């Protein structure tokens, strides 16, 4: 496994791989790898000749109340995980390498961001789109892998790839879950024992929504109200949002039809959990 720290060296690696007609599966990360990242790497390994991951804590996607400096970092641990999973190249640039001087062009994501988590994180997806544009140009992957746990990010990446004609196949990977259904996250350790017991009710509520839709309920407002009332009785945390939207457009809808997302965020004492399901309703 190669560790590449400069853009120039990474571009040289890519040129050599392209000359051999090798496909590149790319997994962008901010490091501190967990089982969700591992599932992306495993999926990339199945369908590509070469797997490249990036580890870069991107300052542009942190808001004023989000501490970039305290974001967890452990490159030695990440390196071991990547090697065990058969990753071929780790791109590990510094902030100075990625942003040597202030940008002369700024990207603004104008759609798919004013709902769900994007509503409370203005500018976050602008930073995501900027770093991914740079990484896509540097690495030139055949396929890029993103976890559906953050389905809004997947929707934004879908827009980025289509709007700017990147010759990249976007591969959304299903959420990795605990045995009780709770979406796996490094944040789960911050739940109290009581919160951890009840947190699976978030996913259970999403499954109930699926059942109600299968039984014929199509009115979005009625579904949302019923789900909110149901979830509220089974958790001690506060519901940040519970939304039913078209997907990947993330538009408001009055009636359930076509591909939709049902997404929930719950604030607990020390952590905020998100989860969702995406279903295609005929």
From TrEMBL:
Record-listed beta-alanine binding positions: 61
Active site: 37
SUPFAM superfamilies: Nucleotidylyl transferase (SSF52374)
Predominant subcellular localization, coarse grouping: cytoplasm
Family annotation (CDD domains): PanC
Residues bound to (R)-pantoate: 61, 153
Pathway: Cofactor biosynthesis; (R)-pantothenate biosynthesis; (R)-pantothenate from (R)-pantoate and beta-alanine: step 1/1
Binding of ATP, residues: 30-37, 147-150, 176, 184-187
Keyword list, A-Z: ATP-binding, Cytoplasm, Ligase, Nucleotide-binding, Pantothenate biosynthesis
UniProt keyword DNA damage, yes or no: no
EC number(s) recorded for this UniProt protein: 6.3.2.1
Catalytic activity: (R)-pantoate + beta-alanine + ATP = (R)-pantothenate + AMP + diphosphate + H(+)
Localization annotation: Cytoplasm
Gene3D superfamilies reported in the protein's UniProt record: HUPs, Pantoate-beta-alanine ligase, C-terminal domain
Coiled coil: none
GO-annotated molecular function: ligase activity
Further information: The reaction proceeds by a bi uni uni bi ping pong mechanism.
Function: Catalyzes the condensation of pantoate with beta-alanine in an ATP-dependent reaction via a pantoyl-adenylate intermediate.
Quaternary structure note: Homodimer.
Record family assignment: Belongs to the pantothenate synthetase family.
Official protein name in the record: Pantothenate synthetase
